[in-house]
Amino acid sequence: MTRSSLRFFGGVVTGLGVGIVMRTGGCFDGTEIVAIIMDARTQFSVGEVAHVHQPLYPFLGRTALWMGQGDVPRSLPTLSSQR
Length: 83
Prior knowledge:
This protein is mainly alpha-helical. The protein contains four helices and no strands.
């Protein structure tokens, strides 16, 4: 098997697994928990809620950094910059 066929097979298996988990009401991380709660309380589906609020998280994280430190850093610290 070539690398491209292995990648394709991996994508198919991952997609099937994600589909099964979502169809049975499961979730993968905390953002989907918010979407499931919103789905129960509004007329929007889990997918609609997730697509709206997930892009907000990087903005909210940067805002929290700005409020806590007084200035927004140009880049977030990495493990290599902690030395």
